[in-house]
């Protein structure tokens, strides 16, 4: 197949656009989409410090490469990579993320569950059983990412979520009937470092291709607790449906944005946990989890 734009050999076919693209046109299209997302959401301003959540996987490596290219000649923007070590033996290896950051010449910092919370996901699983691994891990990782970014002086936290992840989140919230989350809006909440997701309109396979074209040595294998992630079912369901209806993921993300715009500006007063001082909802889930674990440990 030849590129729809220049007739060079194509490396990808985009089913949703009907275009075959060569390497150069794929990279140009990819970067244009990510830049458009940043412009549309006004995610970058002069003086920003951006912490990139960097797991060592393909998505975050692609994000670090893209943001490094965007910011490396800007003296008014600062970029660093942060890796959260949840303590999952045989899976999480912060040295991989460190190597990717070093290849790009980006400052890299590691923050661990052990240091921050005195425990690890492996220990939580030993104490509380396997089935809650992902809910505990997700809550604590979000909190640590926020405090880690803040401790570095960052005012943006860049996440590698892609179109597939975003569409799955909208569908998951819909299937759970979670109207508050769907209509929460993206008004900046006090105490939370602003999250930015430059790849939120780009399909997962394109993010992976961009990563493979520019970097190597990603985290291999999958987390031993991945079977507990609620997302897995929704991913399979959506992949199957989107194969027959290629614009489904884009439609879901658009729907999520429209619903979230209903809630923009209508959020209640920010609440801070009396235990840890972090921003939270009705109850601070991270402190609840840590209290449960320490009770089990006694
Ligand atoms: Fe954490 Fe679950 Fe993801 Fe593993 S699969 S890293 S336990 S959220």
Describe the structure.
There is one protein chain. This protein has 298 residues and is of the alpha/beta class. The chain has a single domain, classed as HUPs (Rossmann fold), CATH 3.40.50. The chain contains twelve helices and nine strands. The strands form three sheets. A five-stranded parallel beta sheet has the order 5-4-3-6-7, with helices on both faces. A two-stranded antiparallel ribbon has the order 1-2. α2 (58-71) crosses α9 (204-214) and α7 crosses α10 (231-244). It is globular, with a radius of gyration of 20 Å. 32% of the residues are buried. The mean pLDDT is 91. Iron/sulfur cluster binds next to α6.
Oligomeric assembly: single chain
- Number of DSSP E strands: 9
The CATH architecture term is 3-Layer(aba) Sandwich
The fold-level CATH name is Rossmann fold
- The secondary-structure class comes to alpha/beta
Per CATH, the class reads Alpha Beta
Beta fraction: 5-15%
Characterize the largest beta sheet: strand count, sense, and whether it forms a barrel. 5 strands, parallel
User: What molecules are bound to this protein?
Assistant: iron/sulfur cluster
Helix-strand sequence: EEHEHEHEHHHEHHEHHHEEH
Q: How many helices?
A: 12
CATH superfamily: HUPs
Q: What's the number of domains?
A: 1
Which sequence of strands runs across the widest sheet? 5-4-3-6-7
């Amino acid at each position: 197949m030849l590129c729809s734009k220049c007739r060079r050999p194509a490396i990808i076919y985009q089913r949703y656009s009907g275009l075959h693209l060569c390497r150069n046109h794929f990279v140009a299209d990819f970067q244009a989409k990510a830049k458009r997302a940043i412009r549309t959401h006004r995610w970058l301003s002069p003086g920003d410090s951006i912490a990139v959540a960097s797991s060592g996987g393909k998505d975050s490596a692609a994000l670090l490469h893209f943001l490094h290219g965007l910011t490396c000649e800007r003296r008014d923007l600062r970029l660093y990579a942060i890796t959260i070590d949840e303590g999952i033996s045989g899976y999480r290896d912060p040295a991989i993320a460190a190597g990717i950051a070093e290849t790009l010449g980006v400052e890299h910092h590691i923050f661990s569950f052990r240091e921050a919370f005195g425990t690890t996901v492996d220990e939580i699983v030993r104490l509380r059983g396997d089935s809650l691994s992902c809910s505990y891990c997700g809550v604590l990782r979000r909190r640590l990412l926020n405090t880690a970014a803040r401790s570095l002086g960052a005012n943006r936290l860049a996440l590698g979520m892609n179109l597939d992840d975003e569409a799955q989140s909208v569908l998951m919230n819909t299937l759970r009937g979670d109207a508050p989350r769907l209509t929460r809006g993206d008004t900046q909440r006090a105490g939370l470092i602003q999250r930015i997701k430059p790849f939120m309109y780009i399909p997962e396979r394109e993010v992976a291709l961009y990563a493979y074209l520019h970097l190597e040595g990603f985290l291999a294998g999958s987390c031993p607790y991945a079977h507990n992630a609620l997302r897995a079912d929704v991913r399979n369901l959506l992949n199957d449906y989107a194969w027959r209806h290629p614009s489904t993921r884009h439609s879901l993300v658009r729907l999520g944005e429209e619903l979230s715009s209903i809630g923009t500006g209508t959020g209640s007063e920010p609440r801070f946990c009396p235990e840890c001082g972090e921003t939270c909802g009705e109850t601070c889930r991270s402190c609840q989890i840590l209290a449960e674990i320490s009770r089990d440990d006694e």
